[in-house]
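User: Here's a chain of 296 residues. Predict its fold as tokens.
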Amino acid sequence: MVNRTESGQDVHLEATLAGPLFMLSAALLFTVLNLVIKLLGPEYTVWSIGFYRFFGGAALIIAVFGRYQNPFKGHNRRLLIIRGCAGCCAFISLVTAVRMLPVSTALVIFYSFPAFSAIFAFLIYKERVGMAEIACIALVLVGVGILFDFRIEGGLLGQFIALISAAFAGLTVTLIRNLREKNGPVTIYLYFCTMGFVVTAPAFAWHPVLPSTPMEWGMILSLILASLTGQILMNQGFFYCRGWEGGVYMSSEVIFTAAAGILFLGDPAPWRFWTGGLLILLSVIALNRIKSASKT
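Assistant: Prediction complete.
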């Protein structure tokens, strides 16, 4: 009896830790992606960045996995395509909003996507969210707002586009949770890249921007690898947690991105960084403890 109990506890512990570890690893890689996008010159538009991300990711997956089997072979291809379109819309909308608004305003609005994910999970799959989990989502929003010194700035159109990006991101992570049950993380990302390529290729072909230095080629390669690896880790993480839970864990990306700016770009480290970062960290810890308690 004791051995069975201890074995069961090990399984619960592994499942409880696996989701946050995958999500935090993905958040670190998305921080690298954010830094690369920030360092690329203004000639790299949202269409150029999107094209390199999507085309490079799809080409790499096909080159590596296409030798053994058809990488497009997946379960529920219609939903895979819908998820790919939703993810592409979220990415393009976010980058567009960042170009139209102060970065702080755009990111705070975008990181409301765990709340959208909870709404979509209820509407589509009838999943219910308890008051403690709602408090974790609210704590994340407050933490992000403090960290970025949130103010309602910029035009209404930019704010609306940022909200649209959050809604699409919430829908995306909700669908990934369902797709992950019968599809591998690589397949899910391949469909995302394919749909993104379809959307961004015409604009890129109309006005192509090619890397002109070895440094730029290195940044483009880093963009592709960080995006691919981070997205696959995130997709795998949704095997262990629900969409809105993954969104709460992924909010740690704002801490990593702000910290990277302080360490590598000389950004200041005001009290807002420490206070907002602490609130986000507390929400992640609280959510993990809630999940652990529910499985004991």
